[in-house]
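Hey, I was hoping to borrow your eyes for a little while. No rush at all, and the record is pasted right below.
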Amino acid sequence: MAESKYIDYFSINSDYIGFRDVHDTHELVSFNNNSTLRIWYNIEPDSYDPHWHTALEIIVPLENCYDAEINSIIYHVEPGNIMIIPPGELHKLNAPPSGSRFIFLFDLSVITRLKGFSGVKSVLTQPLYISKDSFPEIHKELYELLIEMTNEYFSRSEFMELSIYALLIQFFVKLGYHHLNQSELFSNVKLDKRKEYIQKFNNLINYIDTHYMEDLNLEEIAETIGFSKFHFSRLFKQYTNFTFCGYLCYRRIKAAEELLAIPDLSITEISLQVGFSSISTFNRVFKQQKNCTPSEYRAKNQRYNSIQAISPIHSKEPD
C-alpha cells in the first residue's frame, strides 16, 4: 500500500511476546493490552498447523494470496478479498514466501448479547469467503469497513476499541441484511409478519445456543413458537440452511470440540455433556461433521501439541 511508509504497523503490538500460546491445538489468543481485539499487519512467511480459538478471525491479504484450509477445503484468498473464520473452527494457514495481510481477531462475546445478533449467527456457522465476485453487492462496503478499523487501530485513536466495535457491528449488519435479502426469507408473507418470523427465529437460535445439551424436541419447539411441525421445519431450513436436527447437532459438535481439548474428560462424558444420548450417535455425527472420530480428533490435537512448534502466528515488531 502506497501510504504504508507513513504508518507504524508494529509498535502497537509490541506487547505481543511473539509466540503462539497453543494447548492441544487450542490457541489462547493474546489481545492487545487487555483489550478484546487485535489487528496484525502480518508479513511472516510461516505456515501454521491446524489450530482453533474462541476469537473470530478475519484475514484480508494486501500483497500476494493467503491460503486457509478448513474442513479439508482450501480457500485461496486473493488480495482485496475477505476470509472469515468463525470462532472454534479448526483451521490451517499456509503463507506464501512473501506478501502482507491484515489479520483481525475479535472477542465476539462483547456484542453477541446485542438484540438482533442472533440473526447473524447463521452466517457464521461456516467459513465465509467474501470476494468481489461472490458478494458484489456488499464486498466494497465490507472491505472499506475493515480498512477503517485498521486506521483506527494503527493510529491509536482515543476511542480505538469503541470505534472498531462500532464498525464491526456495521460489518455484521450489512452481512445480516445481505443474508436476508439474498435468501428472500419468508418472502411469501406480508412484511409485518416477515419481521415477526425473523424475531421468532432469532430468539429460537439464542435458546438453542444455551440449551443445546438438553433434550430439545422439534414438535414441542414448533408448537411453542406457533407453527406446525412441517411449516416450522421449512421455515427453519430457510433461516439457517440447516434442518432443526442438523443445527442442534452442529451446535453440540462445536461444544464437543472445545471439551475434547480437556484430557481428563472421557469421550463418553463429553458425549453426555453436549446432549447426545448414546456414544455411538455422538461418534457417527462427529465423524460426519469433522471427517474423523472424536478419539482421532483428540489424538490429532495431542500429536500437534507434542511437536512444540513455537513459531509466531502473526507478525512481530522487527529488530
Remarks:
- The first strand starts at residue 22 and ends at 23.
